[in-house]
Amino acid sequence: MPDLNKVVSIVKRAGDEELKPRFRNISFSHKADGSVLTEADLASQKLIESELSKNWPDIGFLGEEMTPEEQASILKGSGSFWCLDPLDGTLNYSCGVPLYAVSLALIQNGDIVMGVIYDPSSGECFTGEKGKASRLNGEILGKKIPQAELARGIGLIDIKRLKPDLINRMFSGQRPFQSQRSIGSVALEWCWMAAGRFHVYLHGSQNLWDYAAGHLILEGAGGHSCTMEGEPVFNNTLEKRSAVCALTEDIFMEWKNYLNIPST
Predict the structure, then answer these.
(1) pTM (predicted TM-score)
(2) Rounded to whole angstroms, how far apart are CA atoms 156 and 4?
(3) Residue-number span of the structural domain to which 29 is assigned
(4) How far is residue 213 from each of residues 56, 66, 136, 147, measured CA to CA in Å?
(5) CA distances for 222 relative to 92, 131, 133, 140, 168, angstroms
(6) CATH number at residue 117
(7) Residues 177 and 254 in one domain
(8) From the DSSP assignment, how many helices (H) and strands (E) are in the chain?
(9) Would you tell me the crossing angle of helices 4-14 and 39-55 to the nearest 10 degrees?
(10) Which of 34, 74, 168, 225 has CA atoms 20 to 30 A from the CA of 139?
């Protein structure tokens, strides 16, 4: 297993040297799928890939800014690989909104075993290792438990990827929570759930590099997650996955019941 502290130093270096200096001073373009791409995405991925390869040459590498063919090849051919989102929250970043992160996971034999998510703006670094408590800047997560009553809580909801009938029910009809937020960075959304800053989470479609590290970090904080079909979120494929999450089991069950998610 790679040394977590060394991995953290590489991720932080990318955030501090490649992302922060370009923040609020960068142009951007759009990829074929309509998502935003900046030179910071490419510079961050280049630095991290180079350092990981130098330190752990036997571990494969899958990055967001690779072609789909390259990503599929890595996933198919490597039992152990890094999974990187070099700049999660690129649209926030390109618009000058300081909610973005570097997200790196290590996947071994079909399981997420290490995750590091670094927010350069706040200096918050979330870490997780399989079977261990997740941490925020070295402090154990999971100690801050949200209040148990969802009706008075906050939902972290990505609206644009949900079906219209669910949106209408959630905001025009039987609203399950007191208030709603969306922060525009999947990686930070998982981490902020792990930190107990919200009560429930719902996202309709995430890529592997978006959620892999955050999934492990929430798990290591004692949190719960599934897809909208009631399946595990992580399935070690490039298939886009929905995410339904909560930090406590009671709120998770209440949230699943509201969303009519089947038990598996």
Answers:
(1) 0.94
(2) 29
(3) 4-140
(4) 18, 18, 13, 26
(5) 29, 11, 8, 11, 31
(6) 3.30.540.10
(7) yes
(8) 8, 14
(9) 150
(10) 225
